[in-house]
Specification:
elongated, 3 strands, 3-stranded antiparallel β-sheet, single chain, 5 helices, mainly alpha, about 45% helix
């Protein structure tokens, strides 16, 4: 009986039961570069025909294109995936994600394991270890730490093969 209740509770959680709903009138992100509010727009507004996922949304700085800051939105919600970022920071976030992906695909750690490890290396709570919220500095640190892990991983694997 107890196991059945646990399964039901887990199933309910996975389906969204008990999760907080987005509050009505939730705040829209403010641009950290120019201070303007952002506007929810279709991704085509920024990417044009190069949109990867048709129908996806972005929060775009109301000063766009003069201020080129924007951030993606979680599918099916109006929740931003992070903070608004200019092209330089977006590029660093992409590079940081790729560095994490290299560790996971090499089999060194699981994807979740990488985030647990990274939270310790960056001295951040696990819940705050989300690249979409990282600054330039934290992206650079993430890339550097991941490169060190891959150097160690590759060096140890070569040593065993010899």
């Amino acid at each position: 009986m107890k196991n059945r209740r646990n399964r039901e509770r887990i199933r309910g959680y996975k389906s969204g039961y008990g999760r907080k709903k987005e509050p009505k009138g939730a705040r829209v992100p403010v641009c950290p570069y120019c201070g303007r509010v952002s506007v929810l727009r279709p991704a085509e507004y920024v990417y044009g025909e190069n949109t990867i996922v048709t129908g996806s949304l972005l929060y775009v700085c109301s000063g766009y294109p003069a201020c080129g800051a924007y951030v993606g939105v979680h599918e099916g919600t109006k929740k931003p995936k992070g903070t608004l970022a200019d092209s330089e920071l977006r590029n660093k976030r992409i590079r940081a994600h790729r560095a994490i992906d290299r560790i996971a695909t090499a089999g060194c750690m699981s994807r979740d394991g990488v985030y647990v490890w990274l939270s310790g290396r960056l001295n951040l709570p696990y819940e705050e270890t989300h690249i979409g919220y990282f600054s330039d500095y934290l992206c650079e640190e993430t890339i550097r730490e991941c490169e060190k892990v891959m150097e160690n991983w590759n060096g140890n694997r070569r040593g065993r093969a010899a």
